[in-house]
Amino acid sequence: MILLYWASNTETSKKAALEAAAVVSDLLVESINGGVQEVFVNEKQIEMEARSMGVTVQRFSKQTSQWLNVIHTFDSALKVSSTQFLLLPFVFLFLLSLSLFLSPLVCVLSAAK
Questions:
Q1: What is the reported pTM?
Q2: Spatial distance between the Cα atoms of 7 and 27, rounded to a whole number of angstroms
Q3: CA torsion angle for 18, 23, 24, 25 (degrees, to 10)?
Q4: Over the stretch 11-39, which tens digit does the pLDDT of each residue have?
């Protein structure tokens, strides 16, 4: 009888130990899986942010190229304007002499009407 009680107590203890081991095992697996899942989510988030940054860099690169083109065009226009500025007195004198030449002619033509 004592052996029977001891055997049944051993079986109960064995079952309890197996159940406890299963619970511990499940908790360990959940803990590890939770960490792996967190790493996976973080990796996906980093990949999305990297793609977004790549798009932003491309956009800024395009804008920089456009600004450089505008500045180059402006610089070229200034260079042309400076050479035209040197010709400005000659153009002014030409227009003045032309108006002096044409003003008597305009007066004659308007008097003839």
A1: 0.44
A2: 30
A3: 80
A4: 787 888 888 888 888 888 887 777 778 88
